[in-house]
Structure formats: structure tokens, C-alpha cells
Amino acid sequence: MSTARTALETEEHQALRAAVAALGKRYGRDYMTTVIREGKHTDELWAEAAKLGYLGVNLPEEYGGGGGGMAELSIVLEELGAAGSPLLMMIVSPAICGTVIARFGTEEQKRTWLPGLADGSLTMAFGITEPDAGSNSHRITTTARRDGDDWVLTGRKVFVSGVDIADATLIVGRTEDARSGKLKPCLFIVPREAPGFGRNQIDMELHAPEKQFELVLDDVRLSADALVGDEDAGLLQLFAGLNPERIMTAAFGIGMGRFALSRAVEYARTRQVWKDPIGAHQAIAHPLATAHIDLELSRLMMQKAARLYDEGDDIGAGEAANMAKYAAGEACVKAVDQAVHTLGGNGLTREYGLASLITASRVARIAPVSREMILNYVSHQSLGLPKSY
Predict the structure, then answer these.
(1) How many Cβ atoms sit within 10 Å of the Cβ of residue 230?
(2) Contact between residue 199 and residue 214 where contact means Cβ atoms under 8 Å apart
(3) pLDDT tens-digit profile of 143-181?
(4) Which residues have CB under 8 Å from 62's CB, separation 6+?
(5) d(Cα 172, Cα 142) in Å, to the nearest integer?
(6) Minimal CA–CA distance to 190: which of 227, 164, 157?
(7) How far apart are CA 276 and CA 17, in angstroms?
(8) Is the pTM higher than 0.70?
(9) Residue 344 DSSP SS3
(10) Contact (CB, 8 A) for 250 and 124
(11) What are the phi and psi torsion angles at 270 (to 5°)?
């Protein structure tokens, strides 16, 4: 199945796509399903992607990264996903945490974390969602109070990916403004083995190498240098990490949708029940063509969001990143559904590897923010309609 290549991507970007696609092909969907079935992690693929410089392609060169941006990192995740082996922790570790530390961290934090995030030897999780706050980051109740030179964190987080394999978690908490008394968001690096930092795995129907956790922070004491960036610029720093999260979630969805579509197209070309292959019938061909169009359109918006972000336009990137995430989530779900229907009963077998994507594809619709909240954002921010919440 051909994928459109235009002047939107440089020769370097196209070469990166080809190289990552070759890596993904060596692993493929069988590798991913085996890892999931055996309860393991994608250590081999993670290590090889890191060795080839793909994991840290967005991080600064002076700290061991590739010196690129979200445009390059999103290509990596999309192509791995299109091969059937997406690395979900790429969204969290290099995209969110790496970006926030590179932009706002102290020199010591950069030296401590960025080289390891770039070469894959260190991994960082990201904790923002709370049981009672959901997508409303303004209702976060995890608080950080000063105690001498230290910080003490108390609160809970849910649906935090990969905490068991992460060396630390970037936690979004709130501190009290000394002048106004209001709570403001701040980000803290919490080491995995910090006293009082507890985790419980959430029993998910979603089968993935990356497990989901509930976190309990029970008076977790951190030194002053655990705070990332300026205490008074927490919201700016938070959204500097959330835009890459949305761009990378779009890449995750587009890659998964492309994988499902390629399986369906291959099947439709060769499956023959009557005189011609089933792909010759418009009832089969047209929905697959529509799925392809939707995925291509989603990539265009993702590319726009990545470019705006890499150029430093956080506001413009915010709108485009939300739209890209919405479009990719919808396109992914539709592509997976159509792929399963194209294969009929075979679409539900383990052999073809599509049935598990029925649940997995919903991730791009739900996380990191629901499609309804994105529609709220667009109606309010883009269209200027009154706020409903």
C-alpha cells in the first residue's frame, strides 16, 4: 500500500521514515503479541531504537540527542506503529518528559536525565490524571508543600503508564502561591524508589506491554532540585509537555491505523470467494479508500502541529495538536473497524493480529484527553463560542 510522499517532508525525514520502517519490519506484530502474551516488555526493540538514535531524535545534541524535534520523533513512532510494534513509552519518556526537562530543567537536571532518555538507558513516566479530576488539570489535588529546603508531595494519580519500568515519574502537583494563596501547577521528578511513593497496577482489558498504574504519594519528601523549572511558570511548562503528548498520540493512532489498513488491503487483494478478489467490489474497496484518506489527512494536521511546535509557536501548536489527536483517533478506530470487517471471521483470529487492536485503537480516542474535551477546546478557543464548563 503506497503512502503519499510530498515536499512537506525533507529528504532527511523520508530517509528517517524508511530506516525506522525497516527496523519495525524486523520486529513486526508477531514480536509485539509475543511480548504481551508472555507479560514482558519491549526491551529489545527499545534498546535497538535507542542505539540507532531514534528515541532521542528530538532531544538536544549537547545532551546526546539528535537535535531534531517533534517532526522527527512523530515519524519514528508512526513508522513503528505501521509495522505493528508501537512503543507507547515514546509518548511519555522522550516526548513529554524529555521536552519539559530540555526546555525548562536546570543544567543539573539536563545532565542527569537527557543523555539517558536519549540513549534509552533511562525512562521516565508522567503522572497528571487523578481519580476525581479526569481531564480537568485545574482540579488536580496532588499538593506540594515546602518543608525547609525540601518539598513534600501528597496525592494520588491514575492511569500512569510504565511506572514499573521507569526510573522516575514526572508528577504534576500544585503549590500554594505565597502572594495570592491560590494553588498553581508545578512539575516534580519523583524517583521510583522514593519513600512514600506507592504504586498499584490497574487491571485493564487493554493488553499492552506498558502497564497502567495508580500512584499514591504519601508525604513523599523531595530535595529542592526535584522541582522542574520556575515555580511561577508551571502552567506554561505543563502545556509545553502536553502539546508533544497530543502530537505523539496522533502518531500512535496513525501508525496503528496504517498497520490495520495494510493487513486489510493485502487480504482484499488476495481473498477470492466468487470470481474476483473481494477488493474488486466497491463495498469493500470504498471504505478502505476512505480509511486511507482519513489517515493521510490526520498526518497532515500532525505535521502542521509538529512544525508549529518545533518553531516555538506554542499557542498555534496547541490548536493543531488537539485537532491532530482528534482526527487521528477517529481515523484509527475507523481503520481498525473496517480492517476487521474486511477479514470477517479471520479478523477476530489471533493469526491476523487485528482483533486486539479493537480495544487498543480506543486509546487514541480516550487518552490523553477525550475527544469531547478537544471539541470543547476547539469550540471555545478556535470558534469563540461560550464555555460550557
Answers:
(1) 11
(2) yes
(3) 999 999 999 999 999 999 999 999 999 999 988 765 565
(4) none
(5) 8
(6) 227
(7) 34
(8) yes
(9) helix
(10) no
(11) -110, -25
